[in-house]
Amino acid sequence: MSMRRRTLLKVIVLGDSGVGKTSLMNQYVNKKFSHQYKATIGADFVTKELQIEDRLVTLQIWDTAGQERFQSLGVAFYRGADCCVLVYDVNVLKSFDNLDNWHEEFLNQVSEKKAKDWCASNGNIPYFETSAKEDYNVDPAFLSVARIALASEREQDIYFQSIPEAVSENEQRGGCAC
Questions:
Q1: pLDDT band at 70; cut points 50, 70, 90
Q2: Which residue intervals of the chain bear CATH 3.40.50.300?
Q3: Mean pLDDT confidence for 100-121
Q4: pTM to 2 decimals?
Q5: What's the CA gap between 2 and 95, in Å, rounded?
């Protein structure tokens, strides 16, 4: 029996409020459509498994709120995204015009690849995503910094200059007792 490789892909669905992001997602995953409109608050996600060649692919599809007041939540939802689906309403020209903004925001938020490319092009600098709040990847990042510094020290023979001891009060005044 051949082994199947599993892959998880995070897909973000973006577009203005009311363009049909949730409907599109529900149709794809559940084969259902509702004429009732209910605005998404924050974000939600569903999963769907596909067989693509020799891979079992799990799509994790994130439905984001289109209202401006929820766009600040984007950073958390965009993190780790593999791609985005841009959605607009063919009857609302403004929703099409806004696709450039959604695309730009996605590219700005999903900066891991850009950051990794920058690190690679600048001497293969290590790249770590960290969270002080969640204590995620903090120790490995600083351990890497220490190892690189030690390796650099060996190459450049780094040393610390001696620090002069405190001088007496008389010496500070230039030896004058006035």
A1: very low
A2: 5-110
A3: 80
A4: 0.58
A5: 46
